């Protein structure tokens, strides 16, 4: 098995340098914020009354994170559309539809975006290039491009922060530059404790990966951290190449808790639960975390909690995500999997192109 403290082994296990991109999260956030504050943006976009983001996978999760922040302090609704079909109610010039796609070539995203165009919404694209960038250039709608070589999911610092910066520029989200600086400082401080040269005894990410190895992790979050739970799940799938689940509180108190004991072959030995928590969670949610932990304990299910760090929801979101990214990285090592390639996504995209 991979010895997480044997630093000489990391280069061979991670030939496409996933670790480098995880480490660059704070730098991505800084660069994306700068870009968002300076990028061209037509003034009349401030007149729209809601935002719809179309995207998939690693390019959709940033929109979920934005929606979580907007639900707390934003002034317009944000809807995230994952799929070919734009909801029937989306249309007209009072809605801004933003296509978020790292490659600019994702089939579902392009299809839903095309539908938005047909329905006369305002359009905008956030991408590194591809068909989406070409279309924006040809048709003259706003295009924010970023250039960052990585897998799409590893560019979350861009895809998320650009959306946050856009919401701020449009006057829809009162986020302070201080929150961005706070998040960057917190991320930098945090990652110093989580890098491969910090031994397992003092490295929480290695410790958590060891704890989760060989199990199905179920990640729970509430409010703005529910999307972080989804991100953890996606990173366990794509980086560590394994099953994971996510759910949210208080909703899971109304269904999931009823079936904690079965199947016996899985529970409790092959299931672990992670709570992603915040001091900003609703007071009754804080109580629900405690009772949910009691119920899980009755079934012998081990639980660990990770708290968002910092004052702002923005910093808390990013720190929880950063920790999860490191855990998924070490879990990939323990699983003997290269964290970067996503063979089955590539296969699917290739097959779809043939059919
Ligand atoms: C790969 C990844 C995927 C992609 C998704 C959409 O790292 O995270 O979930 O994000 O297949 O592709 P893009 O982002 O190019 O639109």
The helix/strand order is HHHEHEEHEHEHHHEHEEHEHH
The gyration radius over C-alpha positions equals 20 Å
Helical proportion?
40-55%
- How many helical stretches? 13
Main-sheet strand order equals 2-1-3-4-5
Oligomer: single chain
Which secondary-structure class do the elements indicate? alpha/beta
What small molecules does the structure contain? Answer: fructose -6-phosphate
Mean pLDDT: 97
**For the report, how would you describe the main beta sheet?**
5 strands, parallel
End-to-end separation in angstroms reads 41 Å
**Poorly predicted spans:** none
Shape: globular
| Number of distinct beta strands | 9
Strand content: 5-15%
Can you characterise this structure?
This protein is of the alpha/beta class. It has helices at residues 10-13, 18-23, 25-38, 61-73, 107-118, 130-139, 156-169, 177-192, 204-212, 226-238, 283-298, 313-335, 343-354; strands spanning 50-54, 78-81, 95-101, 122-127, 143-145, 216-222, 245-249, 271-277, 302-307. The strands form 2 sheets. A 5-stranded parallel β-sheet has the order 2-1-3-4-5, with helices on both faces. A 4-stranded parallel β-sheet has the order 7-6-8-9, with helices on both faces. Helix 10 (226-238) links the parallel strand 6 (216-222) and strand 7. Helix 3 (25-38) packs antiparallel against helix 8 (177-192), helix 4 runs antiparallel to helix 10 and helix 8 runs parallel beside helix 12. Residues 56-59, 101-103, 106, 109, 151-153, 238, 342, 345 line the site of fructose -6-phosphate.
């Amino acid at each position: 098995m991979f010895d997480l403290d044997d630093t000489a082994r990391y280069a061979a296990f991670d030939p496409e340098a996933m670790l480098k991109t995880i480490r660059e999260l704070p730098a991505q956030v800084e660069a994306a914020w700068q870009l968002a504050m300076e990028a061209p943006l037509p003034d009349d976009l401030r007149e729209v009354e809601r935002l719809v983001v179309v995207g998939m996978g690693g390019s959709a999760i940033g929109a979920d994170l934005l929606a979580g922040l907007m639900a707390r302090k934003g002034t317009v609704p944000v809807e995230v559309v994952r799929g070919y079909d734009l909801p029937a109610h989306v249309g007209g010039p009072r809605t801004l539809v933003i296509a978020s796609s790292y490659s600019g070539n994702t089939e579902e995203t392009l299809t839903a975006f095309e539908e938005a165009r047909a329905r006369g919404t305002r359009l905008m694209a956030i991408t590194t290039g591809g068909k989406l960038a070409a279309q924006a250039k040809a048709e003259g709608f706003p295009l924010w491009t970023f250039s960052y070589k990585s897998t799409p999911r590893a560019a979350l610092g861009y895809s998320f922060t650009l959306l946050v910066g856009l919401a701020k520029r449009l006057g829809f989200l009162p986020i302070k530059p201080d929150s961005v600086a706070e998040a960057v400082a917190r991320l930098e401080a945090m990652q110093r404790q989580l890098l491969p040269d910090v031994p397992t005894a003092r490295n929480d990410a290695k410790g958590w990966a060891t704890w989760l190895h060989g199990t199905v992790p179920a990640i729970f979050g509430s409010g703005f951290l529910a999307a972080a739970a989804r991100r953890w799940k996606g990173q366990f799938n794509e980086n560590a190449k394994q099953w994971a689940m996510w759910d949210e509180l208080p909703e899971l108190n109304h269904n999931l808790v009823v079936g904690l004991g079965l199947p016996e072959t899985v529970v409790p030995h092959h299931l672990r639960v992670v709570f992603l928590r915040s001091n900003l969670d609703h007071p009754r949610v804080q109580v629900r975390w405690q009772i949910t932990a009691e119920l899980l304990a009755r079934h012998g299910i081990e639980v660990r909690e990770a708290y968002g760090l910092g004052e702002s929801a923005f910093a808390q979101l990013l720190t929880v995500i950063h920790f999860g990214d490191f855990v998924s990285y070490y879990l990939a090592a323990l699983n003997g999997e290269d964290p970067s390639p996503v063979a089955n996504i590539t296969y699917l995209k290739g097959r779809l192109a043939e059919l």
